[in-house]
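User: Quick sanity check before I run a bigger batch. Here is a single chain. Can you write out its predicted 3D structure?
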Amino acid sequence: MSRISFVVVMGSLLLFLGACTRESNYDRLVKTEMANGVYSDSLKFGLLLGDTRKTFYTKCWELNLEGVISHGPNNDFVAYELEGVNEGERINHLFYGIFDDENIMTGLDMRFYHLGWAPWNKQLFADQLLPKALDTLEQWYPGNEFVRVDREGLPRETYVKVDGNRQILAYVLDDKEVKAVITDLRKKYPDLVR
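Assistant: Done. Predicted structure follows.
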């Protein structure tokens, strides 16, 4: 093998190995936030990551009795109506706890949609709602801002916000709904817990 061929082969091998070990911006963000030692367990409406399923139901029942929330469509979610950015605009926020095998809440599954949504009403489509949902989530969960993330397995326009162990992922689910998921990264990446 000539010296030039050897250099080309070794250079190509080094480039390949470098590409294989390169971390994504998302991976670096998660590692940085998990390493800072900040633990965020608080969620909207007094809910907490780590609540039991029974505690989640009890808190939701009490909020329902106070008229703050109601049952969502098909009783699959809890519903909370919020005012939109524009006068008269009404947005429905649906949420439900994500529980592990021990019935401990490790996250929150959420949806946002305009109450006046219709297939012919393009200004109320989810792509128009996404920025409003991101702003609302940043108000409810202050800290870092949302950043766009490109990662295999996620929709093409996905935004993530990570504050310590609490990650919020948001994207357009379909024409009607924006989906957001809060995840306790201590459960998702236990090897990164300090």
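Strands lie at 70-71, 78-83, 90-99, 105-114, 147-149, 158-163, 166-172, 178-184.

User: Great, the batch can go ahead then.
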